[in-house]
Amino acid sequence: MFVDGEGRLSSAPSEELEYLKKTGIDDYLFAARTGWLAFFLCGLLLCALLEREIELAFFVPLIIGHGGNSGGQAVSTVIRSIGRRSPSGSEAISTVATEALAGALQSLLLGCLVGPALHFFLDTSRAVSTVMATTLPLLGLFSNCTGAMLPFLTAAPGQLVVIRMLSRTSY
Question: Closest Cα partner for 132 from 119, 147, 146, 145?
């Protein structure tokens, strides 16, 4: 027990009470911290899975490389499309959907080839081969969708003109 500045008994010093008032359960800070802690918990669970199935760790560079290449190709295709014409809102949605579907189908083909090849030729477990075969199409869908959306989300109407002019320049 503490005595505050007015001579009353208090269970905590006034500075601590002020801090507790600022960080109440309704506070934005609490919600933001909870979100990050949940994100880190998911990361720890993935690390535990990698530790249990150490074979998966060898394929992380393949997964990262595939996602980056797939998303990069989607960005290039969309920027070229923007350079040729200024797509309207519905055309932008159609372009993103087309790119996402193309990435998912290409990655599905890659997953169908990589999964059995890992199991039969590299002698990985069936579980790891299945995880790789199912991860690649999902990653292709996500990376192509993200890559196709980025030019539309980051380009202001005036910048679309600059992109169009740069895409017509030959080197």
Answer: 119
Confidence (pTM): 0.62
- The one-digit pLDDT tens for each residue of the chain (171 residues) are 566 667 676 665 556 556 656 555 556 666 777 778 888 888 888 788 777 777 777 888 888 899 999 999 999 988 888 888 767 777 888 888 999 999 999 999 999 999 999 889 988 889 888 988 999 999 999 999 999 988 888 766 555 555 555 556 555
* Residues 6+ away with beta carbon under 8 Å from 105: 140
Say which residues have a Cβ less than 8 Å from residue 102's Cβ, sequence separation at least 6: 74, 144
Domain 54-168 has CATH 1.10.357.20: yes
